[in-house]
Amino acid sequence: MSKKIVLIFNTSKPKAVEAAKKLLTSSAFGETEFLLPKNSALLLGTEGTDNFDGALFALILGGDGTFLRAARMLFGKKIPLYGINLGRLGFLSTGLPENIEADIKQILDGKYKLLEREVVRGSVIRDGRTAATMYALNDLVISKTSLSRVVELQISVNGELLSNYLSDGIIFATPTGSTAYALSAGGPVVPPNVSCLIMAPICAHTLFARPVVLNGKDKIAVELMSRTAKLCLTQDGQLGYELFAGDRLEAELASEFKVYTIEPYGTSYYDLLRRKLSWGFNGTGERMIPND
Questions:
Q1: Would you tell me how many other CB atoms lie within 10 Å of the CB of residue 213?
Q2: What is the pLDDT of residue 280?
Q3: Residue 56, class by beta-carbon neighbours within 10 Å (0-12 exposed, 13-18 middle, 19+ buried)?
């Protein structure tokens, strides 16, 4: 029986398109079958599908943005994800382009670790009803539009008032998203195996407003106190929803969804941090503290 791999690539990146073409014509993986979503299959002149049942894993060619879109596409399917970085930073798409074939063979041989990652669920409550529900692997962000003034957000945790923030917005990030927008807002770096939710105000108008790490079972409610401000709720920085005065956002880690990612043997999250954040290295890539 042939092994199935979901192949998702960034259709706007020529390098990703070329890499996908090479994989489809490669004979290096025996009877392995690549399953492509219909929209990207059209670009390559091949047949696509909406049925990914039985896939061993999903291979993602692109940057972290492509990885986030792939994660949302496969929510609930329990198909682990592995990304080849053809973008910039690559905190999620960690594989190197020159190692694509070797990485695929290693994964097909079962030589990898599986990481379970939390997903944050947000529900917009409007006039007593749920107007929208969304899921994000990285973060949900409430932010003002370009012409808005500072906004006031009232935050409650498990029904108890925590604080009122005067700020440009607020971030609710998973551990996976701790190295994304939340990091630039002063939040901590949290390994993906820690169950928690990070709350980080954006440009708060007080010196005492600081990011908070909440328990993985906490339920957060955000009341929009500014009656004239125009606000936007974004999902992984890719999908946006307009928020209105009187709306309430309820956010918590989702119990119904997890995202599984592949970490090949010989790599680790802490190795990734050292490389991507240049910890212990100077600007030329040399170690600041030489080996003994």
A1: 17
A2: 75
A3: middle
Predicted model pTM? 0.90
In this structure, how many other beta carbons lie within 10 angstroms of the beta carbon of residue 141?
Answer: 26
- The C-alpha atoms of residue 256 and residue 258 are separated, in whole angstroms, by 7
Angle between helices 14-25 and 100-108 (to 10 degrees): 50
Query: Cα separation of 180 and 173, whole Å?
Result: 9
Torsion of CA 37, 39, 43, 46, to 10 degrees: 50
| pLDDT of 292 strictly over 70 | no
Number of residues written out for the chain: 292
Query: Which amino acids are annotated catalytic?
Result: 64
Cβ atoms within 10 Å of 283's Cβ, excluding its own: 6
Place of tokens 């407003």: 209
Residue bearing the bigger pLDDT, 168 or 147: 168
